[in-house]
Amino acid sequence: MNYVIALGSNLGDRVGYLKLACQELEALAAISSIYETLPVGGPEGQGPYLNMVVIYESDRSPRKVLEECQRIEGVARRCRNEYHGPRTLDLDIVAVDTLVVEEPDLVIPHPRAKDRGFVMAPIYEVDPALAWRLSPEIAALLEHQLWQEGREIITGVWLKGQLDL
User: Fold this and answer.
1) What is the pLDDT of residue 148?
2) Which residue, of 65, 120, 135, 165, is most buried by count of CB atoms within 10 Å of its CB?
3) Is 133 assigned a catalytic role?
4) Does 80 have pLDDT greater than 70?
5) Of residues 14, 87, 116, 127, which has the active-site annotation?
């Protein structure tokens, strides 16, 4: 199965934490560019986030992949002290092929992904068809914006290049 996983970091060595997550996940079919964006929600005074998405290939169940994501967050010493608070590393399963999961602590597709430009822009980069499926309105905007301005996305700043793995 192809898991689309969103990665974010706004504490410490942000690039290092994103790189750690990619190295821990291993079986990556695609890696987006990195986008720097302001925090959405949460406490005031947080620093900007680095965001990206990866496509992770695995035969494991969504529950097992969620556990793996939480293990990787633990390796990065993520603390869950504050709702939407700053974090060293955040991994969210956004989508898994066309699978739908509705459990108390696991909902796929991610219910807020379509409303978050910092998730949709990197998804559009690695899997435009998924972006269109999640939110045709945002995908159309991203397509227009990418065509008009190259890689300068209205939802964030594209940092040239990708992670050097």
Assistant:
1) 47
2) 120
3) no
4) no
5) 87
Among the listed residues 13, 14, 80, 92, the single catalytic one is: 92
pLDDT in tens, 106-161: 878 777 776 677 778 888 888 888 777 777 777 677 666 654 444 444 334 444 34
Please give the mean pLDDT across all residues of the chain: 78
92 is catalytic: yes
Instruction: Tally Cβ neighbours within 10 Å of residue 23.
Output: 12
> Any catalytic annotation for residue 78?
yes
Sign of torsion, CA 133 138 141 143?
Answer: negative
From the list 90, 115, 116, 127, the catalytic residue is 90
- Give, in order, the Cα–Cα distances in Å from 54 to each of 7, 24, 79, 106, 148: 8, 12, 23, 18, 25
Domains within the chain, CATH numbers bracketed: 2-159 (3.30.70.560)
